[in-house]
Amino acid sequence: EKTGKVLGEFCRCYKEQFGVALFNSVRYEIEGTGGPQAQLLHRKVPLEDHVIYSGNIFQYIEENKKWRNRFCVVPHNYGLVLYENKLAYERELPPRVLVNSAGYKILTSVEQYLELVNNSLPGVTPKSGHSPILKCPTDFPLILWHPYARHYYFCVMTGKEQDKWRAVFQDCVRHCNNGISEDSKVEAPAFTDAIRMYRQSKEQYGTWDMLCGNETQGMAQQVLQPAGAAGDGWGCSWRRGGTLTPHLCPQVSDAVYRMVYELAKAQYDAAVARCEQERPQLESTIRTDMDQIITSKEHLASKIRAFVLPKAEVCVRNHVQPYISSILEALMTPTSQGFAEVREVFFKEVTDMNMNVVNEGGLEKLVEYMEKLSHLAFHPVKMQSCYEKMDQLKLEGLQQRFDVSSTSVFKQRAQIHMRQQMDDAVYTFETLLHQELGKLQGKDDLCKSIQRILERVLKKFDYDSSTVRKKFFREALLQITIPFLLKKLAPTCKGELAKFQELIFEDFASFILVENTYEEVVLQSVMKDIMQAVKEAAVQRKHNLYRDSMVMHNSDPNLHLLGEGLAIDWSEEYSGQPEAERRRRAKQVVSVIQDDEGALPYGAEALLQPGSPEARQPEEAQPGLPPSPGDAVKEIREALAQESLG
């Protein structure tokens, strides 16, 4: 009943925001955009048909309380896929486990895990002498913890393996958290705005680190918020009272999450289908009446501005402006260090390749190294030194002042930008080198050409890096300050907004919302100060930022035409190896961590009994969700679904 209520309210928000997002998209398409053009090329399909990582890892199976050796594969979509063994993978047998890691945290000690579990179980106290939830047979565990979904337990034999797998798992979480496609110019902004508006209607402002994964996951996680966190969440209500042990609570939570997910998916898909059905008529109205809609919106904005802006400016002057430079400095230092590390890693990889090509022999070696270099941005271990720089991000007192629940949103966003900039640099380098190869004669020419192209690409990288970082800083400052201002202004402004509804023509009510226009006015009250702070940082050349007036005059006019061509397949064009060998080598981005079957330390073998009946049962199948619940839970799920959807 509560799930149906939350989802119903959210879907109404989505329908409202869909019209606004559609109007903004069409207007953007007609009016175009300014801003600096990127100097680096952008690869369209970075990892098609490639595997990021694979190797053997021990997994704890909760059903029979045994550890099993599994062959783990991370494909191009960053899912975690576990097979019985490597042979099962090579024979293309069905996997044992499929994990969508959005929303998970990667823990490297049982103590960290137990602390999170105990904090998430209010009123549940383990009994004296009760056996621990998990016994790890090695000193190198890797645990995937989620506040609602199933937990996964792994371990490896050495600290080096643990570091590698941790980097891989973190890359999976980072990618899956970013599950809402930015290519969608209507559905994605409509969804994120609907989530924000729904939360604000429950007096929940600020960033939310569980808005991660795809749209349905975001909705399910909103429903399962602890009571009081977003007004009417009920996520912890069934955990209270000590009726569940720490062993059972994650399993029950997982089953509840699955049921809520399925209800959310059904309602969201239905809402999207209704909006898409109305889209042609809405778009026709927008294109026909664009000027009138803009005029009507500007009239509404002027009235709201006259009412809100004086109060907003006082609030900005007293509570925001004094702290903007401190927030910006806290953001700039780790972010710029991370981008500098991206530049350094790229420079080192190309320079090492150049030396090895000269020393080891010409074009054939170049092909081998270029195959590896082309996927550098997606190598979780080599990129880890870049990502780790963001761990320094701490807003300290500012975080409490502006009610920022977590900095993880900003960390992951900066890390995604780093990966994209690395791939853009690599793709530009290989495109320019590919163009030059036909003109070269001998190793010396090849060496000089690689060095010359590297210098060109680094100049372009510095320019694009500055542009991307400045945009990131502006967006992060807005994400921190706007929710704070809205919360501050709510007691005096929000109740008065209803009177502005009469200023909107009924024909345009699908494209103009009072609440959205009010937010735009609040944004304008602080935008000038934010732009000025970032501009001053660039003028002072802080952290290698370029001034806005700085434009690259030596840009390559034909470079972007080269980027429109087909993807370069180095092995197919230049390698003399057989096709099967080329495919085997090119298929995986990173080498296998542990190619043998491995064994646990002496004394832990008793935990592994491959011949037992339990070991032959598949643990779960999870295309984007935790494992399927038992029959009893399925019956509950079906009854709830019929009641809610009915």
TrEMBL record:
<dbReference type="InterPro" id="IPR059060">
    <property type="entry name" value="Niban_1/2/3_dom"/>
</dbReference>
<dbReference type="InterPro" id="IPR026088">
    <property type="entry name" value="Niban-like"/>
</dbReference>
<dbReference type="InterPro" id="IPR011993">
    <property type="entry name" value="PH-like_dom_sf"/>
</dbReference>
<comment type="similarity">
    <text>Belongs to the Niban family.</text>
</comment>
<feature type="region of interest" description="Disordered">
    <location>
        <begin position="602"/>
        <end position="632"/>
    </location>
</feature>
<dbReference type="InterPro" id="IPR001849">
    <property type="entry name" value="PH_domain"/>
</dbReference>
<dbReference type="Pfam" id="PF26089">
    <property type="entry name" value="PH_Niban2"/>
</dbReference>
<dbReference type="Pfam" id="PF26086">
    <property type="entry name" value="Niban2"/>
</dbReference>
<feature type="domain" description="PH">
    <location>
        <begin position="50"/>
        <end position="174"/>
    </location>
</feature>
<protein>
    <submittedName>
        <fullName>NIBL1 protein</fullName>
    </submittedName>
</protein>
